[in-house]
Design brief:
Length: 76
C-alpha cells in the first residue's frame, strides 16, 4: 500500500488486485482503523458481506471516500 498517500479513514474502500491471471480483485469498506500509524491494519467488510482484519500489502490500494460517515448518519 502506498504509504505516502493520504491516511486511510473509516468509510474508505480497500481494493486488492488479483494475484493470478483471470483472478478477480476484491473490494471492501474500512469499518475500523487499528494499530499505530505506519503499522495500521483495518477491520473490513468485504464485497461478499463477511468481515475480517486486514493487514495491507503491496497489492492493496485505498480509494478515499468522497463523503464522511458523519454526514451520512441517519440517511439510510
Amino acid at each position: 500500500m502506498d504509504r505516502t498517500a493520504q491516511a486511510p479513514r473509516v468509510g474508505d474502500i480497500v481494493v486488492i488486485s488479483g494475484h493470478r491471471v483471470g483472478e478477480p480483485g476484491r473490494t471492501g469498506e474500512i469499518l475500523e482503523l487499528l494499530g499505530e500509524p505506519g503499522h495500521q491494519h483495518f477491520r473490513v467488510r468485504w464485497d461478499d458481506g463477511h468481515e475480517s482484519l486486514f493487514y495491507p500489502g503491496s497489492d492493496a490500494t485505498v480509494r478515499h471516500s468522497t463523503h464522511s460517515r458523519a454526514s451520512t448518519k441517519g440517511k439510510r
